[in-house]
Amino acid sequence: MAFTLNVNGASHVINEEEDIPLLYVLRDTLRLNGAKYGCGVGQCGACTVLRDGSPVRSCVVPAVSLQGREVTTLEGLRAPDGALHALQRAFLAEQAGQCAYCIPGMILSAAGLLRRKPSPTEADIRTALDANLCRCGSHNRIVRAVQRAAAELAE
Amino acid sequence: MSAPVSRRSVLKGSLVLAFALAGPDVAWAAPAKKNGLPQDLARTPGLDAWIRIGEDGVVTLMTGKVELGQGILTALGQLCAEELDVEPARLRVLSGDTRVCPPEGPTAGSMSIPNGGAAVRQASAEVRALLVDMAAKRLRVPAKRLTVRDGTLQDSGGGARITYWELVGGKRLQREATGTVAPKPASQRKQVGRPLPRVDLPAKVTGETRFVQDLRSDRLVHGRVVRAPTPGASLVAVDSARVAAMPGVLKVVRDGDFLGVIATREWGAVKAAAALAAAARWKDGAPLPGDPHAWLLAQPTQDTVIHSVERPTDVAPTRTLEATYRRPYQMHASIGPSCAVAEWDGTTMTVHTHSQSVFETAEALAKMLGLPKEQVHCRHQDGSGCYGHNGADDVAADAALLARALPGRAVRVQWSREDEHTNEPYGPAMVTRVRAGVDANGDVLDWDYALWSTAHGTRPGGEPGNLLAGRSLAKPFAQPEPKNGGPPNYAADRNAIPLYAFPGQAVTTHFVKAMPVRVSSLRGLGAYANVFSIESFVDELAHAANADPAAFRLRQLRDDRAKAVIVRATERFGWAGFQRRPHHGRGLAFARYKNLAAYCAVCLEVFVSPDTHVPRVVRAVIAADAGEVVNPDGLANQLEGGLIQSLSWSLKEAVRFDARRILSRDWEGYPILTFSEAPSVDVQLIDRPEEPFLGAGEASQGPTAAALANAVFDATGLRVRDLPLTSERLKALRG
């Protein structure tokens, strides 16, 4: 079936099966790398993207349900001139990541948090990221990166 | 329980003394030099195999070591830039390409800096010396007068200058390393020893193509493999006609028990694989053991005394203590399931893989496919962190088999979460038993340690029988008989030999060849269970002696660098002045990884809820001595990551299974540590720029587990000897 998706500010006519999860449209149809496949059942957060600014698990959300919504992936965080988002800069400044496979999902979950709560406490950040799994043990660096981005955005 | 320990009793019977094993294989464990060259450079002495200078001024470094998230390419680049006197930005690093890069074996065992790094440093120093020599001749000035800055050589006397690329750009040096060039002394290093940011991270935070999962050629199609639903099951029948007719399905492939499907689109492949799984009938294999630890102890074993020291004195111990420790099967549990992209053009099988062992896996793939090994080309591409031998090599075999069935297309195989959880080779379950006879002061006279384990190494190693797919073909490759690889203290018995100066010592490995559950190398191998056991037991001995656990350790150690990390960790932690609070406790543990790599001490503070018994780690301190540090931030990241991962293993993780199947099939069935459960970590590095590199990537796994158990004991008086250390176990002990 054909439907329209708005991804990172651009409108796309998608011709895919009705049951296709958003993740497969983002990766396979639109060839975007940001959302990662991690579990396919909404448990790990590697596929997190924003729906109208709020984090969702793209591996379990049917793409067709996103009609009329604004979808933002890691690629969509950069400014039109290519400048990195404050969160991306902060993750680099803190060297927050080892394998970094989970990082796009972390950044988008954090973006959702900062939109909802621009000055989160450390506990807020940890709670917001609890459903995003990291296996390398980069947790503390990731928390520091979110704190750094929050501080920069508050200026 | 106070009978004196008879050390001789363990030496009786059919045990083999292992000293004979400590011969040629030792080079594998300890960084060695051959002909004055680091071993990886001795194996590939041609300098052109390591470094090329392009006409465009780009310097290419080639390495057989691969990026696993540990930051190795950044560190190797620093070593190269340092010795060549070029800016790191001038470097391009090619890694893990079996046709381009020097074969350096697997990227594993905390050996990449001690072996690979030492080779890059020496090769770079030799190339620089050759270039300086050439420039001196070309400029007709004494070599001594030349200084090099970012590849530009300048005569400090006259001002004449020439660049590396003007000298040799695009040409081969055609020279071999000699071992006669000395790398820079510590005092002159500018790149090495500083926290250069990771070279691969920018692409990963912006979503550029860096992961194998993200490769998309125009010929890309999507494959999925349907795996046996229970370990060891065989495929009885499959009716694939309906699947073959599904929209977008290009091919169903069956070869014995190997069953896969290829489709044009990824979602189509997912649905086709589900339909194929539903259409397949399997016959279960042998049942799985109910209690893996009882099973281990009941198996026939290959017994080896790996270490024995006769106590010179004959005083009878005043007391004997004994304890048994257990470690469950645990997963690598990568966040991104394994993935590979393979393409067969009729001549070459090209496989993009995140394998840790591209060279040996290429050889195994060639044998599986019946091809000469020159016709299999493996190219490393980053994957999700693996922490050892996970599904990376298996999915490469899956992709290669499907690609062979569909020539001219790049077949991408992505394992599902359930594929990874139920098929990756787990870190083996282990049982250890320690007995110590102590004197009136509580100091150890006799130390008797025994361990039971299956294999810790079933990596491909050039053998298709080590690949899941290789074993399932209609003409299957047999799995090679598992071995307890390497010299003593190396695999199952890694870190089984204590570093303490106990007067009498015996260490025995009981190796079990059977593997009812698939197992292989998980970060630290046997060191995780052995250090957990030794360091828990030393804590038990300290308490039995009414001694402070830190002081007790220090008085049994003779190695000053070992003592230094314990002193640094306890000082930073505030061990001496620890303020006791209800339900809080402190714990310390120490090990020198493999007894020859990095020294690492860990202090933890825990809080154990009196209501729920849930242990929570409040804060952690690591002190480590890895010899010369190439990139302190990278090292700190590895040590802290290892600590947090080990806390996850030690607090939460055990693979669950019943007699038929693996029950840990997703993250609900195998929970790992979350942000709210991860403690703050203070990493202290003792840098010794004049000392050799000591590998550190796995150094914190073992000490962390024991520090946790010791801290929980301090908080509760309960000694947990079975991992993971859960609230259920504490509740049961409390009674």
UniProtKB/TrEMBL annotation, chain A:
Molecular function, one GO term: 2 iron, 2 sulfur cluster binding
Keyword Transit peptide attributed: no
InterPro entries assigned to the protein according to its UniProt record, in alphabetical order: 2Fe-2S-bd (IPR002888), 2Fe-2S-bd_dom_sf (IPR036884), 2Fe-2S_ferredoxin-like_sf (IPR036010), 2Fe-2S_ferredoxin-type (IPR001041), 2Fe2S_fd_BS (IPR006058), Beta-grasp_dom_sf (IPR012675), Diverse_Oxidoreductases (IPR051452)
Domain named 2Fe-2S ferredoxin-type: residues: 1-77
A Pfam cross-reference name: Fer2_2
UniProt keyword terms in alphabetical order: 2Fe-2S, Iron, Iron-sulfur, Metal-binding, Oxidoreductase
Top-level taxon in the UniProt lineage: Bacteria
PANTHER family recorded: BLR6046 PROTEIN, OXIDOREDUCTASE WITH IRON-SULFUR SUBUNIT
Protein name per UniProt: (2Fe-2S)-binding protein
Organism of derivation: Corallococcus carmarthensis
Taxon lineage: Bacteria, Pseudomonadati, Myxococcota, Myxococcia, Myxococcales
TrEMBL record, chain B:
Range of residues in the leader sequence: 1-29
UniProt keyword Signal, yes or no: yes
Native source species: Corallococcus carmarthensis
Superkingdom, taxonomy of origin: Bacteria
Domain Aldehyde oxidase/xanthine dehydrogenase a/b hammerhead positions: 206-286
Keywords associated with the record: Signal
Gene Ontology terms, MF aspect: oxidoreductase activity
Key word DNA-binding present: no
Pfam family, one: MoCoBD_1
Protein's name in the database: Xanthine dehydrogenase family protein molybdopterin-binding subunit
Lineage: Bacteria, Pseudomonadati, Myxococcota, Myxococcia, Myxococcales
